[in-house]
Amino acid sequence: MNEALYDITIIGGGPVGLFGAFYAGLRGMKTKIIDSLPQLGGQLTALYPEKYIYDMPGFPEVLAKDLAEQMIRQAMRFKPTVCLEERAEHLTRRDDYWIITTNKGVEHATRTVVICAGAGAFTPRKLNAEGVEAFEGKGVYYGVRDKAQFEGKRLLIVGGGDSAVDWALHLYPIAREVVLIHRRDEFRAHEQSVAQLRQSPVRILTPYELRRVEGNGRLERAVIFHNKTQEEVELPVDAVILNLGFVASLGPIKTWGLELEGNAIKVDHLMRTNLPGVYAAGDVCTYEGKLKLIATGVGEVCVAVNHAKHTIDPSAKMFPGHSSDMTLPALE
Ligand SMILES: Cc1cc2nc3c(=O)[nH]c(=O)nc-3n(C[C@H](O)[C@H](O)[C@H](O)COP(=O)(O)OP(=O)(O)OC[C@H]3O[C@@H](n4cnc5c(N)ncnc54)[C@H](O)[C@@H]3O)c2cc1C
Q1: I want to staple 24 with a disulfide (CB 3.0 to 4.6 A). Which of 29, 102, 271, 323 is the partner?
Q2: What is the CATH number that goes with domain 126-244?
């Protein structure tokens, strides 16, 4: 018996991959999670940790980072192997199992694979304006990890989508001042949020864009311009938050011979891809009627994992039984 051969390897430790790891543990499978980020939680921890989620069953409202924390706790119940900061690059068949090779050159042997890679490896869309690169991480930010860092600060937020509008709404109560600029007069964000924004003390300037940021050692000013008249306005600021969206790509996964539709992996009703023993679930997969939500993603991965169990052990039923009838190891 090959000690290093896992029953199931989950690529992606976002909410869907985490729930998959829990279910795989529940089914007694030797489980591994691989994620390219330095922490688990996927989009919840990387993109919007401080935002409230309102559509999780059992949680009338929950901060994304708190949901991630609970999902990680749940996933760790059966002690899966977790490999962080490793990007899955190649998938190759060896005998009757799969080898996932990561950017670190590590080979992970596994009987089944569940791809829960979300939108793939994502990076924020960068702004090519003067001074932005030099102040990145030191006054100019592409996301909010900890909103406390903006307490009492004069903020400029750039963008017109949900992230920009939501951050303006979340931060104005703790910041000294928030200015939001957008290059168009219309916001793309949810109309209810935009209505809330217009009632708030946030100063909205449209159609404005960022021309440059300046400061002596620390960020002091942002120069914005009206994109029709070119008139410039200088704003004293302590921080600039750029919410210009993300560039995501499946990257190497696209070369694995999977049937794709755009940037997503096609699956059937059992979450099977066209490769034997390889499943996909969550944001990364597509089928007719697909919804990119956590609630649907965790259902998909539950189907994938239970089918994977049945595939490697045909005597095991696909239905896992009710967890309420089971005795589980204690939570940590
Ligand atoms: C601002 C915002 C607000 C949202 N609000 C809600 C909401 O209120 N309710 C809701 O249901 N949904 C919401 N969503 C969507 C929700 O976050 C996603 O549907 C969910 O995160 C998808 O989970 P996932 O596990 O499929 O993918 P992800 O969370 O994207 O996780 C995928 C993981 O895979 C890893 N990965 C990718 N490629 C590789 C690779 N090659 N090798 C190793 N690791 C890899 C990534 O690093 C990442 O950690 C929101 C999304 C955003 C951006």
Answers
A1: 29
A2: 3.50.50.60
